[in-house]
Amino acid sequence: MFKSKTNILIAFIILLAGILIGLQINKLFVDKSVTEGSAKFDEVLNYTQKYYYQDVDTKELVDDAITGMLSALDPHSVYIPPAEQIGIEEEFRGNFEGIGIEFQIINDTINVVSPISGGPSENVGIEAGDRIVKINSKSSIGFTNPDVVKNLRGEKGTKVDVTIYRPSVKKILDFEIYRDQIPIYTVDASLLMSDSIGYVSLSKFAETSIDEVKQALEKLTKLGMKKLILDLRNNPGGYLNQAFQVADLFIDDGKLIVYTRGRIASLDDNLRAEKTYSYENIPLVVLINKGSASASEIVSGAIQDWDRGIIVGETSFGKGLVQRPFLLEDSSAVRITISKYYTPSGRAIQRDYEDKEEYYNEVLDRVEVEGDNTEHKAEVDSTKTEIFHTNGGRRVVSGGGITPDFIVKNSALTDYSIKLRGGNVFYKFVRRYIDSNPQLLTNYQNNFELFKNNFSFTDSDMKSFIKFAERNDVVYSNDDFQKDEQYIKTRLKAQIARNYWNNNGWYAVLLELDEQYLKAKELLESNYKLPTKY
To answer: Domain-by-domain residue ranges, the chain?
Structure first.
């Protein structure tokens, strides 16, 4: 009995000693300033809750405080509220659950832009141009975008009844749709633009991007692709590992693609080409512009540093910081910058962000001189002063994004065209035009090439468009219209092509006026070779 009690006492003393030792060890590893800061924050929050003269929303105060705290760091360390985080997760996971349509709300009515290929809506017969007038027997007229998402998205396998009006047959039709997992594609288009030149447009780097790009390249190779234009314009980035894998498609022999460095050495990384692909010697042009950031700059920077391909367009955004997301208990998240990334030559791409307002304005105000920049003299007078060299000895500089080997700008639009786009007038007019010409597709035998080569808007069509635009509050300007007439007609034609042939039709028409794309195509057709200094 006594021995048993003694054993219990000894065990208790050992346990207590362990707890005390653990607390002391914890103090060694926990920054004292963090615990003091947390205590101070709690103290202020408690005083505010207790004594502020009005009721306060504690959650909102905490969210604002976190936002304020992170704003003292770099521009890309941010707090993401729960609802926004759910959308971001879906976007970068590459899928969501719903009925699978792209839509726009016009005149209080949900217009189906297109059913997503292979999704539940396409499977039951929903078509581009259908108007959704009821959801589960209740009117959907007047719905906002969030209303549509709330009512049409839902758990896989659940049913939603949709009533549509189809203008082409002037009938009301009912559909019973079972929700399913809907893919969100990051390859917007993959086209064979000539006998041998392939074109792939990648909109972001999400979980599925490498698989999508490989599928696109395999398809184009079977069609006869021997050269490639990779379009990363307005691609804001995404997952680092996806950027590394996309670059690995074109870079061989274990070459360095990107490396990261930060305060915590264990988080540093060196990513090298790992796999062998048949695209490692394919003639390549990469298109970038000021909307190309982060992961896009990793790919284009590696391609440029190894002289693996030609970079065409405008200088990229200049985001060279790597964020890691941390999910919080309430499903919100913070993205914390953990390191800076460097291209194979040692270039840091991140621009100066001391003045955060100027950080974003600089991109809008940036002035670049068009022309051959293969020797990268355009950067001489800029703030980018550190000089590095490509594998072939060409000069490149650090600290301001990726500057192209050929600087090419697309023509600026007039105010008239900007207002047409801003008011969604192109889509609205084409939707009405297609409704009024139900035989349009039959006239071109459902043949895209026949449509692309032969369709054009008449003078009467354009007069109708101008009047339609005025009814949509876009005042006609003869000078602006004359300057942009070809663009306006091409964009209208592209809208029709998208209705019948989805994004591939849209891009195939628009690219005919795209000066950056046309320069890339010219370089590939002429078998242009980058100069070397060795």
So the answer is: 36-61, 96-183, 187-325+336-410, 415-513
